[in-house]
Amino acid sequence: MRFPLLLTLQALWLSVCQATQHYPTTWGHYDLCKSHGYTDEGPTWYYMACQPEAADMTKYLKVYLDPPNITCGDPPETYCTLENPYMCNNECDAATEELAHPPELMFDFEGRNPTTFWQSSSWKKYPKPLAVNITLSWNKTIELTDDIVITFESGRPEQMVLEKSLDYGRSWQPYQFYATDCLDAFTMEPKTVKDITQHTLLDIICTEEYSRGYVWKNDKTVRFEIKDRFALFAGPKLHNMASLYGQLDTTKNLRDFFTITDLRIRLLRPATGATMVDENNLSRYFYAISDIKVHGRCKCNLHANSCIFDKERLTCECEHNTTGPDCGRCKRNYQARAWSAGSYLPIPKGTANICLPNSVGPVIGGRGKRLQRRPDLNPDLDNEKPSISPESPGIISGGKDVEAL
């Protein structure tokens, strides 16, 4: 179902003001795929690299739990608080709406009182591990633009792994390990994101920063720091985005690092608040998550500035005579040269690398290379006449998120 997008002139002006306030014009927003212009031969299109705006991607995912029956409440169960084993007045009952804690409460509106959250069953099978996999699936390639943040209501887990997939869940690779003791849990030296350099950005680390300490009522979040990694190229306040765009444009491994189709949160050991597990009161130990934040954009290979959520699926609205869910191939009859992703370079508007009509004949020219002819100034390369039209409804469009890449 297409969701309505109603923009008043005032709201549009505010978004433009915010964007220009945070981004110097020389950075480029890559929010326009083409612009209307004129040459000596008449009206034409100028083509540019483009991408959708960043958004809250949790609105478009599906969540899967393994084991499927790990959510509390069937049968009903009473829980104790971690800090006070004698305070056992929290009940979970899947049959009662007010007492149920289903998975969708990880993604609902925050700010409610009391806080809503998903909750697992307790560690009643100790010493068998209380292991839970939470898989977030988009059925679409997306690019991360901000930190992944997971908020726990039961104390942060003592052991956890964040994993990513680039092939719709067929294979997985770790993003980061989390533990109170990295050496003991994963035989890895503990590190933080501050230990990462430009040369080690792709290294997988184990961090103790989000697991140690029994102050869980104040420290609830676990992060995977996207922006700190961006800052290795763009500077501490992300003021040098041109440098980051240049690296993304020329380094496939770097682009792939920030690209996912699925995320998996592997919860391996819950918070215990002590060195020893109290086997006489196992109802103190469980997982509870009140919020997951994943900020990103549809990957459209710099060939679209909008992304539609229709029939439970995200799809790029492709420009530049490209097609496919990620604009990953040329349209029929537009295959005079091989498809290529758009290019961030040259800054600030990039290169569109549009697909050429077959009538042009075979053209040799790779990504970002200059051709003898100027396809970016040819009005016949689109099936449409140059015109200026408002945004279509139901889209995630480009260049409006000032906090994102």
UniProtKB/TrEMBL annotation:
Keyword check for Signal: yes
Keyword list, A-Z: Disulfide bond, Laminin EGF-like domain, Signal
Region ranges (Disordered): 366-405
Amino acid composition bias (Low complexity), ranges on this chain: 386-399
Gene3D superfamilies to which the protein is assigned, alphabetical: Galactose-binding domain-like, Laminin
Ranges of compositional bias, category Basic and acidic residues: 373-385
GO biological process: animal organ morphogenesis; axonogenesis; tissue development
PROSITE patterns, per database record: LAMININ_NTER
Superkingdom of the organism of origin: Eukaryota
InterPro entries with a match to the protein in the record: Laminin/Netrin_ECM, Laminin_N, LE_dom
First and last residue of the signal peptide: 1-19
Occurrences of domain Laminin N-terminal (ranges): 46-297
Pfam families, sorted: EGF_laminin, Laminin_N
Keyword Disulfide bond: yes
Name assigned to this protein: Netrin-G1-like isoform X1
